[in-house]
Amino acid sequence: MRTRERGGMGARVAVEPRRFYDGGTLPHDGRPGEPPNPGADPRIVLERHAEEGVETFALERRLAYLDRHVGELLVPADPGFRTDLTSVPALFTWLVPKTGAHLPAALLHDALVAGRGDATSYVSTEGREVDRVMADRIFRDAMADTGTGVVRRWIVWTAVTVATVFVGRRVLWSPAKHWSYRVAAAVTVAVIFYLGYSSTSDLFDRSWVGAVEVPWMADRPFWVELAGGFSGAVVLPLALSLLWGRLRMAGAIAGVLLAVLLHVTVGLAVIAAAYLAAERVARRSAVAGWALAAAVVGGSLVTFALVSLG
User: What whole-number distance in Å separates Cα of residue 153 and Cα of residue 297?
Assistant: First the structure.
């Protein structure tokens, strides 16, 4: 089955689900493994491991993917390969879940890229070497083949591209080019955080330390300032993305997401930090946990009464 998907942010992708298929098994305990079977659906069989509190998974069967440019790829290449499924920080799993339609592509990408202390784990039957930038592109195409939505796959591709810029190894960029991308990304983040800080100060009519007045908000009615702030969160990152050169699409998407979701992310981070602190207190002492809960409930009752009754 083949369907044509048009216009995904400048791309036209032929969605071909059959590019993923069963990759067979690796040799085990002296027994030969099973060969890939292009006529069979992919089978994702995972074995859970928990080492030092970190949850990872091993693939009991291999995945096979027929890439449009490098040919057949089989993952993993060895039984020691481990994956954390889709590598998404906990704060953003509401946007990109750990599993879903994109899971086969995420497992493929994990095997194609080397982690900080891990080697790659793939076999190219055509003898092709896959660098990290190519792996990111394969990931994006593979997500299309699994039926992942166009917006989500470009967001995920942006995330892995930013990771490649900052921590990626095995890239074909020159050191100067690699550092130019890092500087562009760092400048983008710094400018967005500072303007977000200043815009928030402007929105609530406060003069926070170091904040400047932003002209797209200024002294206007609250809803007008809010609309101006949102427009700035779109327009300014698009301008900053020009610093990223050939990676300007990733720069534009990352910048707009960071600017638009800045306050949401800060709020979620505060909630997550409070939850972790409560867990730590409760784990160390049940009495302290109950005391903390009582303090929160008591404080809430007093505040509710004062606010409601004036």
Answer: 42
**Domain shared by 149 and 110, yes or no:** yes
Residues 94 and 123 in one domain: yes
Q: Please give the tally of structural domains in the chain.
A: 3
Within 10 A of 140 (CB to CB), how many other CB atoms are there? Answer: 21
Query: Where in the sequence is the domain holding 201, given as residue range(s)?
Result: 175-260
Task: Indicate the pLDDT class of residue 107, thresholds 50, 70 and 90.
Answer: very high
Residue with tokens 């799993």: 93
Q: What is the pLDDT of residue 116?
A: 61
Residue 47 forms beta bridges with which residues?
58
Calculate the alpha carbon distances from 31 to 25, 26, 27, 40 in Å: 10, 9, 6, 22
User: Strands, E, within the chain: which ranges?
Assistant: 3-8, 11-15, 20-22, 46-51, 54-59, 63-67, 71-75, 123-124
Phi, psi dihedrals of residue 63, rounded to the nearest 5°: -100, 140
**pTM (2 d.p.):** 0.85
Q: Are 145 and 105 in contact (CB under 8 A)?
A: yes
